[in-house]
Amino acid sequence: MTRERRATGTVTIDVEGCKGCELCIAACPPSVLSMSTALNESGFRYPELSDGCTGCTACQLICPDYVFEVYRLAPTT
After folding, report:
1. What beta strand segments (E) does the chain contain?
2. What is the pLDDT of residues 13-65, one digit of tens each?
3. Spatial contact of 46 and 22, defined as CB atoms under 8 Å apart
4. CB under 8 Å to 18, separation ≥6 — which residues?
5. Does residue 2 fall inside a structural domain?
6. Which of 17, 27, 36, 73 would bridge 62 by S-S if both were Cys, CB 3.0 to 4.6 A apart?
7. Is the residue at 76 inside a domain?
8. What is the CATH number of the domain that holds 17?
9. Could you tell me which residues come within 8 angstroms of residue 74 by beta carbon, excluding any fewer than 6 positions away?
10. 25 in a structural domain
11. End-to-end CA distance of the chain, in Å?
12. Domain hosting residue 62, numbered range
């Protein structure tokens, strides 16, 4: 049985500000970040977000380049 993760948050990523260190990938508890195959204008790969973000802020806290903005979604009833 596969359980679908409900997103309770989301992030925006400043792709051009990323230097591709990949710290956010390992720090993401729900494992919804992966590195792109594409490169930004500076020649670095950058993180891409998949479904299931919890808005935990781990990526934002570990990022040395401050490329993440985290948003928590309002609960639905």
Report:
1. 9-13, 33-35, 47-49, 68-72
2. 999 999 999 999 999 999 999 999 999 999 999 999 999 999 999 999 999 99
3. no
4. 40, 44, 46, 47, 65, 67
5. no
6. 27
7. no
8. 3.30.70.20
9. none
10. yes
11. 25
12. 9-70
Contact 49, 10 (CB under 8 A): yes
Instruction: Give this prediction's pTM.
Output: 0.85
Kindly state whether residue 32 falls inside one of the protein's structural domains.
yes
Rg, the chain, Cα only: 13
Residue type (1 letter), 44: F
Tell which residue, 17, 72, 71, 13, has the closest CA to residue 47: 13
Instruction: Compute the distance between CA of residue 53 and CA of residue 30 in angstroms, rounded to an integer.
Output: 7
Distance of CA 77 to the CA centre of its chain: 26
